[in-house]
Amino acid sequence: MFFASDNAGPVHPQVMDRLNNANDGYAMPYGADPIMDEVREAIRNLFEAPEAAVYLVATGTAANSLALACYAPAYSTVFCTQVAHIHEDECNAPEFYSAGAKLTLVPGTDKMTPEALRKTIEGEEVRGVHGPQRGPVSITQVTERGSVYTLDELSALTAVAKDYKLPVHLDGARFANAMMALGCTPAEMTWKAGVDVVSFGGTKNGCMGVEAVVLFDPKKAWEFELRRKRGAHLFSKHRYLSAQMAGYLADDLWMKTAAMANRNCARLAEGLQAKGASFLHQPQANMIFATLPRSAHRRLHDAGATNYIWEGSLEGDDPDEHLAMRLVCDWSITPDDIDTFVSHI
Amino acid sequence: MFFASDNAGPVHPQVMDRLNNANDGYAMPYGADPIMDEVREAIRNLFEAPEAAVYLVATGTAANSLALACYAPAYSTVFCTQVAHIHEDECNAPEFYSAGAKLTLVPGTDKMTPEALRKTIEGEEVRGVHGPQRGPVSITQVTERGSVYTLDELSALTAVAKDYKLPVHLDGARFANAMMALGCTPAEMTWKAGVDVVSFGGTKNGCMGVEAVVLFDPKKAWEFELRRKRGAHLFSKHRYLSAQMAGYLADDLWMKTAAMANRNCARLAEGLQAKGASFLHQPQANMIFATLPRSAHRRLHDAGATNYIWEGSLEGDDPDEHLAMRLVCDWSITPDDIDTFVSHI
Amino acid sequence: MFFASDNAGPVHPQVMDRLNNANDGYAMPYGADPIMDEVREAIRNLFEAPEAAVYLVATGTAANSLALACYAPAYSTVFCTQVAHIHEDECNAPEFYSAGAKLTLVPGTDKMTPEALRKTIEGEEVRGVHGPQRGPVSITQVTERGSVYTLDELSALTAVAKDYKLPVHLDGARFANAMMALGCTPAEMTWKAGVDVVSFGGTKNGCMGVEAVVLFDPKKAWEFELRRKRGAHLFSKHRYLSAQMAGYLADDLWMKTAAMANRNCARLAEGLQAKGASFLHQPQANMIFATLPRSAHRRLHDAGATNYIWEGSLEGDDPDEHLAMRLVCDWSITPDDIDTFVSHI
Amino acid sequence: MFFASDNAGPVHPQVMDRLNNANDGYAMPYGADPIMDEVREAIRNLFEAPEAAVYLVATGTAANSLALACYAPAYSTVFCTQVAHIHEDECNAPEFYSAGAKLTLVPGTDKMTPEALRKTIEGEEVRGVHGPQRGPVSITQVTERGSVYTLDELSALTAVAKDYKLPVHLDGARFANAMMALGCTPAEMTWKAGVDVVSFGGTKNGCMGVEAVVLFDPKKAWEFELRRKRGAHLFSKHRYLSAQMAGYLADDLWMKTAAMANRNCARLAEGLQAKGASFLHQPQANMIFATLPRSAHRRLHDAGATNYIWEGSLEGDDPDEHLAMRLVCDWSITPDDIDTFVSHI
């Protein structure tokens, strides 16, 4: 009953197989392996972007920070939400990789709205050389609170960015989960919606540790390569990143695992609802933010469930007080796990 | 009728004299000039801090950024208000000098409150290595909106910082104005109130371009020196920084010019009040935020007054609409200027 | 016949098995996996350093840069050879991670000598605040040209460093190859010889992508953790780094693969010598720098051998001109490969 | 008898006068003062570069570091000599401002030769993404050892840079001294000779603390402005930088003071030669590197002369041992000083 995160589950067997199969003989290092050629081609096809620059790194923070650094000069500021992973969970990596750019927080509790974004952008750089310059807008899809922007919502945000000629980064650590929730194509959720660069996540959705960065403007390619190397994120035995991604893409595995994760989440949400849980908002992808009474939390805890108490504490006198929890499902969660979990509430 | 800022007036004659007097013969460069020995001694005496490390730089941004960099590791965050100069007006200099530390904004419109500070600190670093570590608290005295923290207010803020073992930086670009408003000593407004490092401003109060950084912990001295040199802020002909500061300190000139600026401001506030202006808050030092009808603004503008319209625009149909303005007085403003200004309202 | 590098061969089956075995169920992320506990313990035991801080990263450049950053302030300079990997092959990563420290090159062609090191250190920082401050000494073992420092040579270098109170970093990308060449213990080649922090390589010696950083001073632990996270080198699914290292350490595999690589190299050197090749110096570990006539290079190339021509070019009129080559063996090279290679000369 | 440096003498009265005259009324801050308009125009005229971007900063290190940062990406390397000020005397400021670029040292003892430059450039970046990319070439004129490149020598160096499409920076801390030695125009010594950006020194030649940065490509202007502000080098009371430069340029003062300094140096060299001193090379501008017996050094020291012993020490048994000294003259040195100095040898 592991619902703490989607970064703790096993690698999908198909990815593991591909890794094992790749482990034969010699392959040119540093991205010159033939599997990477295959991966690059596959991702360009997927995104209907034959010119896109495609690179692999091993962590989501590297994907985000390197992508942003190509678009955020040191004297600029990145626009993101108050709960963005790049703001809260990367220990200043975006600031590090951009040599000291700022992050300007767009008010709001989860999804960024075009109005809030516009107002925030307007609030910056009205002072010439004195304040930071307006830099990229970074959007997270699936959001950190489990919401999914519709294509229209995405386009509305990028339209604001374009009004100010600002580039747009999409943190797609859970790209596949969002796409399956929307039922759209990768192109529709990225460049067709105005996105310039996307972190296309693999780790949370069945891989071991691999994320693709897709830059739709190939003129950024060489800068990205240099930044990746300088950041110590270029793997010598790169074929093992390539192989993960190749296994992940083959036979649409990435869509299948995302669909599984989303289905798991829906089943869990249904069970929670039946037990009277209340939701921060209706779960759309593979994350749930819901509240349960402390007594229910305690039963779950005692039964061995692993998940984060988001607000409040198991310690406390009142058994009826509602505590918020975050529940995340990856592809590997079984219906049995879910049903057992629900049964303990 | 120049009320746009206190960074545009002339150098006080006494400072200029000292500069001219210093311009004789040869002096060892890079801070080894004898006038610097005199200045160091004078500042240590003023602050009742015989061990303090004292350094001069030429800009307030350099003073703030270098001071903060000694206390804010790259993986930390600095706590300041939303309108702090270090946040809004230094083009990411604090981020640059700290190699990418973050600035966490304490909500509020001007003065920081202990409650807001505590809540903001509590909100950071509850995620171990994932979020930035809590770093220094930076307080501006006089604030960017012209308020002056009382000694009790300062101590209440530093007490919160100390609860979390966080160092405290005081941005004292208008240190003297605040001190004269409070009627206290330099020591009372700094280390006795829990401040670890202060930017002691000279430029806005009668100098040409000089700020002292006073580090009450002398163990930081060598690091500061190296950071200053590496930041290209160590002057070869340093005696001309020393001479400014020496002239500024002699015969308590710095207190006199601050008192003059504050008196000018009070006279101006009185005049404005008589004319029906409304104030953001009661002016305490040398800055006023007040509103006047557009028609009055236009008359002032036509009469050649120089000041910032803070909110709104001279252009506009309604002559009665109130527009906010910022008015700053330095020591050099004359009663005549003020009275003429008021007469145009 | 792949002799281009030891970064292009397969992962050893025992490491792969451990990876596959680790791929079961859920494991706490970000280094909190139980396999990491096992690895930490094993490395502390190996190094006879029960207090050492032990961390895993995925690339050698990350290991070096993060380790150095903990010891090299931005206003300091790192001492290394002209051919050090940190200087030539990391695209300014050490400069990046240290926020702009310099690398001062100790003259010489391969091994650093105590005399050259001392002279170079003496040449730096005789100018107070003006030049960079003396920072860590970084030694590569096995060197970039395939030499192995004896324990006495290592101690002589670290003694010079200690004379100036400078910390010592050991780039051990080929740590195991050196150790097997010397027949010593990990402790003897590190802290007993005066090393403060070591990059303990796995990738080139049978792993997929994992390096341990061992800091013998545990007071540096938390700083390292923060730098690793900020550098985007903390893996969420960390167990797969742990599992690689666990498989690598089990049953002394790491020593066995290194011994295999060294034996392969010795066999190759013998074959080359019999064919009249001349050596830059006598191969000691798993790298050979040797010269052959252009005609021999061409035959090898036509036969499908993969290796670097170090100086000169296959193109050229004179078939007898000698061209330098670099040959590297990892554990996976077979005697047959070697003999075939030699037969083509 | 002050010959230690040209950074310790007084400000020329004409510059001081202009400073005093500028000290009247109010002037728009941050470079918007009318004197700056005058200075910009004057420098563009001087350099026959009507489009050039012209900015003022207060230190030579700021001028060099900011100029280089506009041309040296973080993943590049700057080519300079082993004794370049940017390498030896700026405490890693160029590395800081460029976010970690490297400095690659062109071998040689003083002047850079085209052959050495070409060979050094060739030695860098033959490894794609692994090594740093080739960045700007930085040339110092007058060199750190007092030599002056002829126009042909300059052009030969920049021609090498252009062969590799590398930009060229000229560190002109002693620009005027070189120009007077050559008898050429500012344009001839800069853009006509292939220079892209120049640090045009004022401090060492009669100013208090001001250097102009002239970027011949105006497309770099805004980036420079942002970098200057972010580096805390934009002065609020900017008119006092402008006034220094205006006073310095008026009536060709800058050429006169340089000519005076050079003449002083020639007189000193003549005197030294008559006393049997031997020279590192024939003095051309305002610096002398010469050797004298220890006994002569002692006599000078006892007579109160201030200068650097470059190699060796006053302490020592042998009165006849020759010690190298550096002697620098600024405009303010008097013939009497020089003659007295020589008389003590």
Automatic annotation (TrEMBL), chains A, B, C, D:
Its EC number(s): 4.1.2.48
Q: SUPFAM superfamilies from the xrefs?
A: PLP-dependent transferases (SSF53383)
The keyword Phosphoprotein is annotated on this UniProt entry: no
Task: State the superkingdom.
Answer: Bacteria
Q: Name one GO biological process term.
A: amino acid metabolic process
**Required cofactor(s):** pyridoxal 5'-phosphate
Q: What class of enzyme is it?
A: lyase
On whether Lyase is a keyword of this UniProt record, the answer is yes
Location of the Aromatic amino acid beta-eliminating lyase/threonine aldolase domain: 3-291
Q: Which UniProt keywords apply?
A: Lyase, Pyridoxal phosphate
List the molecular function annotations (GO) for this entry: lyase activity
A Pfam family recorded for this sequence: Beta_elim_lyase
Q: Quaternary state and partners of this protein? A: Homotetramer.
Q: Which family does it belong to?
A: Belongs to the threonine aldolase family.
Q: Can you name this protein?
A: Low specificity L-threonine aldolase
Q: To which species is this protein native?
A: Ascidiaceihabitans donghaensis
Q: Which gene encodes it?
A: ltaE
